[in-house]
Write a structure and sequence with these properties.
110 residues, 4 strands
């Protein structure tokens, strides 16, 4: 047993009403998405880590260099590391970035 009317005029009326409601819902979704995007833009970015390790290409790529957090030369694959890890990486012979000079900030004399 159907809960819809059997005649065409009432079915067309229901179709129109639902189309109007769907348009209203879609407009509300768009407004909510815009509001959420604006809130995202207003949120401050988290501070960069103190130190990062630049990774080589490929899964499990070798470490290439130690950088100060936020250094733009760290490439697209920087991994946050602690001060101790940065010092250990330098001690193991991993290069210090020649631009941001993490070795100077770390007090590394190696």
């Amino acid at each position: 047993m159907s809960d819809l009317p059997p005649d065409l005029p009432r079915l067309r009326t229901l179709e129109h009403w639902h189309a109007v409601q769907l348009d209203r819902i879609r407009a509300a979704i768009t407004t909510a998405q815009q509001r959420e995007a604006e809130e995202q833009r207003k949120r401050p970015l988290p501070p960069p880590p103190d130190w990062v390790l630049q990774q080589g290409i490929g899964q499990g790529g070798p470490p290439l260099a130690v950088h100060v957090g936020g250094c733009t030369l760290a490439g697209g694959r920087p991994r946050p590391i602690s001060r101790e890890q940065a010092l250990r990486a330098l001690a193991e012979g991993i290069e210090a970035c020649q631009v941001c000079r993490p070795d100077t900030d770390l007090g590394w004399l190696g």
